[in-house]
Amino acid sequence: xxxxxxxxxxxxVFIVACLCIDSHAQDARTIVKEGFNYMRGxxxxxxxxxxxxxxxxxxxxTIEAWxxxxxxSLFRIIAPAKDKDNGxxxxxxxxxxxNPKVNRVIKLPPSMMSQAWMGSDFSNNDLSKTDSLIxxxxxxxxxxxxxxxxxxxxxxxxxxxxxxxxxxxxxxKIREDHVFLAQEFYDEDLKLVKAMTTFxxxxxxxxxxxxxxxxxxxxxxxxxxxxxxxxxSFKKNLKDSLFTISNLKNPRR
Amino acid sequence: xxxxxxxxxxxxxxxxxxTILTISAIAFACLLLVFMLSFQFGSYETMINSSVKIHxxxxxxxxxGYQEKKSIRLVVPDPDAIGKILDQIQSVEAYTSxxxxxxxxxxxxxxxxxxxxxxxxxxxxxxxxxxSLMRKGSYLAKDDTDQILIGNLLAKNLKVGIQDELTLLGQxxxxxxxxxxxxxxxxxxxxxxxxxxSSIQMPLKYFQDVYGMHxxxxxxxxxxxxxxxxxxxxxxxxxxxxxxxxxLPLVVLDWKELTPGLLQSIExxxxxxxxxxxxxxxxxxxxxxxxxxxxxxxxxxxxGVLKAIGITPGRLTKLLLIESISMxxxxxxxxxxxxxxxxxxxxxxxxxxxxxxxILVQYGISGRIYPRLSLLSALSGPGIVFxxxxxxxxxxxxxxxxxxPVEAMTYV
Amino acid sequence: xxxxxxxxxxxxxxxxTAVIMTAxxxxxxxxxxxxxxxxxxxxxxxxxxxxxxTGHLQIHHKDYRNDPVIENSxxxxxxxxxxxxxxxxxxxxxxxxxxxxxxxxxxxxxSGITLVGINPIPEAKTSFIGHxxxxxxxxxxxxxxxxxxxxxxxxxxxTKIGRKLVLMSQDTDGNIxxxxxxxxxxxxxxxxxxxxxxxxxxxxAARHMLKLEKxxxxxxxxxxxxxxxxHVSTRLKAELGTDEYLIQTWRELLPIINAYLVIFDGxxxxxxxxxxxxMGFGIVNTTLMAVFERMREFGLLKALGMKPWWIIRAVLYExxxxxxxxxxxxxxxxxxxxxxxxxxxIDLSAFAAGAEFAGISKIIYPAVYTKDVIISNLVVxxxxxxxxxxxxxxxxxxxxxxxxxxx
Lengths: 253, 412, 407
Prior knowledge:
Number of strands of chain B: 12
Low-confidence stretches of chain A: 1-25
Largest sheet of chain A: 13 strands, antiparallel
Mean pLDDT of chain B: 84
Largest sheet of chain B: 6 strands, mixed, barrel
Mean pLDDT of chain A: 82
Radius of gyration of chain A: 18 Å
Structural class of chain A: alpha+beta
Strand content of chain A: over 45%
Radius of gyration of chain B: 31 Å
Oligomer: heterotrimer
Shape of chain B: elongated
Order of helices and strands of chain B: HHEHHEEHEEHEEHEHEHEHHHHEHEHH
Distance between the termini of chain B: 34 Å
Helix content of chain A: 10-25%
Strand order of the largest sheet of chain A: 6-5-4-3-2-1-13-12-11-10-9-8-7
Number of helices of chain B: 16
Distance between the termini of chain A: 24 Å
Low-confidence stretches of chain B: none
Helix content of chain B: 55-70%
Strand order of the largest sheet of chain B: 2-3-8-5-7-6
Order of helices and strands of chain A: HHEEEEEEHHEEEEEEEH
């Protein structure tokens, strides 16, 4: 624990030092990793409104989410009442779903990983493979912008040749204070497939954090899924026992 | 009646044996061609029907775009209204409603993604062969609720048997989470891997509860009395739907649109029939040609005599042509009539073409082919025969012009 | 003497002879040719269905067919090899594969498929894939990240050769296994469904992905035409035992194809029956006419003192000669036709004009079976002799005067 704090401190010093000398020397991978760590925190708890928007239809639900690092997360629906207590547990690359009505836990087979999660524009893979961005891509800084007076790194991430990822490229916008502004997914022809954009960056859970996240497919205009953080708090550590199947079934908060 | 026609007619019956042989050759050729073309059309229809009856039906009413997207929200909101239109159409044999949803299906050991199909247990039996495809357990009863039928390959993959429980987890029409626990009542095998590997059928009412369908369905499946009724039903359905509300986003799809590969593969198989038909025409053509030639040879002496007594070659040719055409017409008429009668008989009774029909019955395929008589099958073969006989008659009719009476008369 | 008489008689009226011979030639030709076409189509159907990976025989772990997962592999490949080498006669092709359900995906599409790990060289001889490549190239044993997919899948996925596909399945530990492959080629199959169903990689790549150290999911065996499938199946069962292995013939593996073949058989039977009737009618009619025409002649012979039996015999001799000559020519013609078509086949798509068939070539290669040829010839000769007896016998019974009165 202590060592991690120290290393973070050292890194921060290092970054600051680098910034002083030459911002472009900043290692792109580090920016991405730092960004991820910043956004996810060590552990977090949040309450999110998820809106799935379609031209003729819209659906809203409220979800409680616990995360620990990049590997573990637990989601539980709290509204609407009809779907209350449905849950999803993600541990590493594996996912389980729980439904209170039938009181069963179902492990997602590989065939389902590319399906939409809860009918949204996020696929199960988007949830389960978040860490792949760090390990399976090669990142380069392509430029900088400014946003609210802060510097924004434009990062191009190309998958390593044999990485089992479907994207041809991702483009990230990460602010110098580690806030993710955008993540764009491209196919192998480098055509945009879908993009996630964040809005309303404000103090949340003790740090600057985007309140609204929107995932939108590239070729349709009026279809998107929006996450709106109603509550967010970063914890030092959440117990591993939180991310277990028995807890997925029996919420003991 | 001119003297020539009279003479030709008398000539024909002067040697009834020869005439009957000639006419029967023509009649028989027509008969075979009529029958075989009807048989060909019939087997085409039999094969299509046995394929569409496994699941898709001849026609379906769906929400526009459902065929491509299969989104649970693209529904036919009021299937009863469609039913009312269908009740009015004479050529509809049966119809039923279905609803589909993609869901996770989980047994104690395994989880797979599968299509859950809501069916009306009673009406379904009239539209599809599902009931006869049951291998284990039994078919759904009218009032069953949380009972399902499952494809045999999926059952194997999930490692479940009769009475075992399955958990279904999917998304309802309103986007809410749909989940239920059901019991396996029966296991079916259609022989079509897609269906057997990834489909589960449950009572439509129960499906509508679980998936929050509010009485809506995804498909109204229709079978016509026969394949040729399909286009007519499609038109009537379209106008009927327009009458309810011209803006309803509903489409009527026929079997060609529902299973595009089916038409292709069946036509490909049956195109082979064209070769057989071609061969058959060749054989009958020669048989007719031979008969005609023989008749002419046999009558060389007679022609010699006619010429000797001063009949002009032109008149002789005319005489012969009248003779052969009248024989041809009689033959063709007889051929069409007997051919049609035989075809009609088999159209009613079917031709059993399978040595091992029990294998076929297992898959709901009937081992019988029912020939289908139509104007096309009744007339196209005889039409070809008419052309052949006419050409066959032309040769000798002109050949006799150069006949020299003396030589001809010495001919034995 | 009779022979000579008959021979001369035949050429006394060459036109008549020519007509009868035509009837016989067409008869024999049509029967042989039709049979050859049908046999060709039948074996084509069987070949097509078994070439799509099935083969004549397959060996699996006994649980694999019920539960096609990677755990149900046959691990003792050595024992398997030994048994196969012992039982299988030379000229037999076989191929071992890994075959599991998988998910293939790219940035825009995902689809459930069957992942097939193959040994490229033996596989090319066993199944269709070796000669079905229409774009790019076939797999090489050293291809670690190459995948071959169907043309239809390539189109559906809006991708092309050289592009990446991610394959996902469950590994031997039950965890999700995923691996990136590059499309190196596409294959074409008769059915679009086949093109969408299979993705081929090398067996080494599949093993690597699925964490399977050794072992195979299935062995597919393709036999030459002259070897009986059931026989080999029985011997393999005896050699390998049925406790651990499941040995099935294509008829068991493809029940619905088997059922369709049964229908097709019936279909073929009806066609040959009808063509036979048409052919028979042609011969009967022509021969009848020819003999009736000679009624006078027979009467004359009788008046000259020939015994009725002799007349019949003379007619039979003549008919026999005619038939043999016609048959010879008919056989030669039929074989010429079959031979001419044996290379190029008959392209059925040419018969079916229309855009629907554009791009599809369904070619029949006629196949001659000795049995069919003998039967065709026997049928024609017996039929021919039978129909010539009738008028001859009738003529033989006539008094000369009656016979002369016949025109």
